[in-house]
Amino acid sequence: MELPLLTDLYQFTMAYGYWKSGRHREAAEFELFFREAPFQGGFTVYCGLEESLNFLRGFRFSRSDTDYLRSVMPSTVEEGFFHYLETVNAAEVTVTSFPEGSVVFPREPLMKVRGPLLVVQLLETTLLCLVNYASLVATNAARFRLAVGPEKRLLEMGLRRAQGPDGGLSASKYSYVGGFDCTSNVLAGKRFGIPVAGTVAHSYVTSFSSIDEVQGQTLQPADGQGGEVDFLKLSWTWLEEVCQLLKMPPHSTNVGELAAFISYAIAFPLSFLVVVDTYSVMMSGVPNFCAVALALHELGYKAVGVRLDSGDLARQSVEIRKIFRRCAERFNVPAFENLSIAVSNNISEKSLKLLTQMENEINVIGVGTHLVTCTLQPSLGCVYKLVQVNNQPRMKLSEDQEKTTIPGSKAVYRLYDGSDQPLLDLMTLGDEPPPEIGKEVKIYEVGKNIETQTVTPLRAELLHRVYFRNGQMLDSEPLPSITEVRSRAQRSLTNLSPQHRKLEDPHPYRVAVTEKLHRLLSALRRSSESRANLMQFSTGN
Amino acid sequence: MELPLLTDLYQFTMAYGYWKSGRHREAAEFELFFREAPFQGGFTVYCGLEESLNFLRGFRFSRSDTDYLRSVMPSTVEEGFFHYLETVNAAEVTVTSFPEGSVVFPREPLMKVRGPLLVVQLLETTLLCLVNYASLVATNAARFRLAVGPEKRLLEMGLRRAQGPDGGLSASKYSYVGGFDCTSNVLAGKRFGIPVAGTVAHSYVTSFSSIDEVQGQTLQPADGQGGEVDFLKLSWTWLEEVCQLLKMPPHSTNVGELAAFISYAIAFPLSFLVVVDTYSVMMSGVPNFCAVALALHELGYKAVGVRLDSGDLARQSVEIRKIFRRCAERFNVPAFENLSIAVSNNISEKSLKLLTQMENEINVIGVGTHLVTCTLQPSLGCVYKLVQVNNQPRMKLSEDQEKTTIPGSKAVYRLYDGSDQPLLDLMTLGDEPPPEIGKEVKIYEVGKNIETQTVTPLRAELLHRVYFRNGQMLDSEPLPSITEVRSRAQRSLTNLSPQHRKLEDPHPYRVAVTEKLHRLLSALRRSSESRANLMQFSTGN
């Protein structure tokens, strides 16, 4: 995709404004941040860095791009601008960022982008597009993981409900980072090396209507000894046993479903897992499954389990487990006790929480729509704001106090207490020394107009790293694999204290600024309010 | 993107099941439908057809795809299956569909996909992914258009909040189809020929801090007569006049903002539209704008207007219009009365409705997040269900009554009354004759277990068309341009009666089945409930 053109038109009109007034090569710094953690939660998992850096590497405009721009921009735009655009790339851009997968908080710069004013302005929309959804869905996935605990297996299966092909790919990738175990999305598996999973849908079951459709099919015992066995006959016999055990009329289950299960077992004797709610779970799906699974076990194979896609999932899982246990006991097949029960059916964070609070025998949970569309809050409001031009700090005041920005190029430190628990994140101006260990630091909490607080850090971790300089990724910061990003996310979440991590009414994690940054902020605000020239304030003072 | 692999793994495990049991070439038909209109509304705008057909044209698996599949599917899968997969394409697939942009209703097949069982099964997830979001966002856009009425200009600007690059492209494309006028998304403009719009962001304004930054820049009068004019000086003079008119201290506005406006006006003398809320709308942004716009007018240019991105948009627009009128009168510049006022700021369907009910002077509305993420309901639940195999109807019963499907290959007619108003959509079995004009037809409304109704259509429109056969688009149904699709959507919505079209508590549009289809449905349900063999029922009986 032609990412450099995937941006808002106003980036180009602004670029022309800069060019026309000869300011296009002034040194500027933008920062990318959000104002509030999504889902009324306390944390955000930062993602999208690698894709952003790849975008930067390929950032240039083709002749066809400038031809198009010429056709839509006002006729007063000078030809020289389009020629200049054709020379533009990210060779003078520096990107400093949190590592991908970090747990981040409101108002701190996730990414700082420094370079010629015209270039870094043009990057805005694409960078936001690459970071916003990636971070949102990773955070959502992390919440599902926290809601369900570490034991149950989580499968992402939202491709069909995502915002088109690439929305689906991103959803799979970043759900994995957020803590899911696998995806149904094959292309995501191929591209990113994420584990993939899935067996059968209802259409497979309904495509069979008669036992004739599997007549004559055979299966060899697992140990390869003895000849092919008539697997239909074997399953049919087991169905009689199962119906007797369950006190059902013999062969009262749906035969199309039975045929589907038999054919699937012949195809996948080592990975037999089928959906059991096409007709009736307890009167057809489960008895049919047990019959075919017992036939497999007789031949030395092991069935995997069942999937439920409707109804009361917790209650049904308990009932099904009981049947599995009865089969295990009656037919002396201990493995039956531990068959897997997978569920899906429009699962949300809320329903997942309820599910885990109820008695249940569920092993695997598939989540689609609510995960990939982030129903609770379908967007993360990352913004990209100018904080410095020619080493002079800039800020945007606003009648919405919330939209006011924090000026200047900043470093962010995570300060830890004596037990190595994070105390808060502290933003300093770029030219300030790092906070001194064991010494009291004056801080001002962001978004609170209260008096100074003090903290005494016993460790201070500089959170940003330089990832990109002179148009190149840096060898000093090789990009981690997706598994490493996933581990970082899980580790960062674990390090967070439970009151910051909890899904509802979390205690807000503190983000603060130093005294010097606080003074700059107040001075620029006063200066703007008194409508004086902003020029006189600089980080140097 | 390798779309054929952008699907759920279970499509391949099912495909193997079909192949292994020798059923892969059986003639099957799936249909794509949804169960409920989104946003608790009465209608859905169907989109995604063209992209679906393009996907079909390129549908084949590469060696690298089958290599990947071999690595993730169970080791029991036979090699012959992967070889077979490499031969698979859409050459035997037929697609019958509503035209793109049609207004459609729950339960009717939007798209019917017929072909070899294995192939049409494999298409499921990708088709759903291509239709679901496209239709959802087009419908959402149509609702914004209905909420605001035909007069105001609607700009889509959601790229930065979409689900990644392609989510953003789809959002722009289908918002236009749904009734938006233009997009901020440049690539969407280039790819689809959608009008693009946009001027400046706050960063442009904050990047200027001093009047020095535009010193020495000049502008030639519009008629090319006379020499270059010192535009800074001219604007400065006008600012004095404006401040006097508005009873403000002279030059009390923010000078950085003034500098930004002057530089932008020099760059775009024929399309001067700037954002006026970087500092204070009434104390800085509007006076600065008026000064620069008046300077432009003095030189024979025409300013375009202002944009607001915060605060009470309706109230501010009224106040700004008053100032424009005062300027028009005092300085004898009539064009000032009709300057454009554009607004944005997290606009939702609800806030848009409120806005239009209030006194306002707004001309252009930019909508981002709520449009592209469809906050009110971020997914459309289209599903793809098997309705027929080997000319035998199939249905999926479910313990969730709602999830039960309607069996058989169906045609859909829109029946009209004497005043050519749509009465209802009627589904017939494929081999039934069309409803007779002027003759009473027995119908059964879908989802209602009530007695027969009758209608007497005075016109019956067959809604489906065949778009794809033998791996090819059909010349008989050339795909319409995006503008034609947009017109169809707007026309279809206009034809819909107001009570079906209204955004809240709409009267449900009726979708019904014929007596014959109703009988088939009942018979299959009874048959399954009595666990008999489904084989005996066919469309032929």
UniProtKB/TrEMBL annotation, chains A, B:
Keywords: Ligase, Magnesium, Manganese, Metal-binding, Phosphoprotein, Pyridine nucleotide biosynthesis, Transferase. It catalyses: 5-phospho-alpha-D-ribose 1-diphosphate + nicotinate + ATP + H2O = nicotinate beta-D-ribonucleotide + ADP + phosphate + diphosphate. GO terms for cellular component: cytosol. It is an enzyme of class 6 (ligase). GO terms for biological process: NAD+ biosynthetic process via the salvage pathway. Residues 410-520 form the Nicotinate phosphoribosyltransferase C-terminal domain. Its EC number is 6.3.4.21. InterPro entries: Aldolase_TIM, NAPRTase_C, NAPRTase_N, Nic_PRibTrfase-Fam, Nic_PRibTrfase_pncB, Nicotinate_pribotase-like_C. GO terms for molecular function: metal ion binding; nicotinate phosphoribosyltransferase activity; transferase activity. Pathway: Cofactor biosynthesis; NAD(+) biosynthesis; nicotinate D-ribonucleotide from nicotinate: step 1/1. NCBIfam families: NAPRTase_put (TIGR01513). Catalyzes the first step in the biosynthesis of NAD from nicotinic acid, the ATP-dependent synthesis of beta-nicotinate D-ribonucleotide from nicotinate and 5-phospho-D-ribose 1-phosphate. Helps prevent cellular oxidative stress via its role in NAD biosynthesis. This is Nicotinate phosphoribosyltransferase.
